[in-house]
Design a protein that fits this description.
globular, 301 residues, 78% helix, mainly alpha, single chain, 13 helices
Amino acid sequence: MKFRIAVAMLAIYLVWGSTYLAIRFAVETIPPFIMAGTRYLLPGLLLMVWRRLAGDPAPTRRQWLSGAIVGLFLLLGGNGLVSWAEQRVESGIAALIIGTVPIWMVIFDAVLTRIRPRWQVIMGLLTGFGGIIFLIGPESLFGQHPRYDLLGIGVLVLAAFLWAIGSIYSRDADLPRSPLLGTSIEMLAGSVGLYIASLLTGEWKTFNVGAVSQQSVLGLLYLIVLGTLVGFVAYTWLLRNAPISLVSTYAYVNPLVAILLGNWLVQEQLNWEVALAAAIIIGSVVLINSFRRKLVSAPAD
């Protein structure tokens, strides 16, 4: 069992961390919403057919609705916006911004439960957002020589925000007992939303299939097979067979993998500012998660 857990953890560390670079390659010649919609449509159909043939009961209307809401927040609002933003922002920087999802989740938890976070958590929140400001450069806030495309950074922050909302909603949503069947609903609904977004943004009018590069095709295939099927199946299995505290460490590792791969393969920036911002943001997430775990494991008064 320990060997299986180690292999599954290695899969989500490396595969999910590498998907940001694969997205960058895919959107070079494939419009982002079309690309993301295709990425989730095919695995969603495959999982739905597989789980129904395996005997899983058909989802109820309420489960379809709940799964659709989760899919739209996570895959359209989260991944779709990441795919769009990576036309303007490097893959490593995108992964670092998306790594702030746990920070947003803490904020939503505090709003929903009306419980004021402890000072250690508040410190982690302030440190995390401070890391983002340091990353883009304080001078960027005043319109002076921004280090990165501010629209792209803003869209990535919105993507992290929407992903956190979808994650919070999914915890109590009425979803099928089979995690893979529930995921197939989310993928199918998300792909529909992504294709609608592609229509509204005019992607189909300018999309030229003949102009799609081999690199973009390989990037999309990587996302479908490894990023969506292998990575997610490993993640789902780990949630049932490994401690959550261990599984959640992917959120710390993925940005580092993305930054190093981007620098190694396509010479994305890796200077002291990026390294320090990564340390600040990831450190703040570690602080928040570790303190929340202590609260969860502590006995009630």
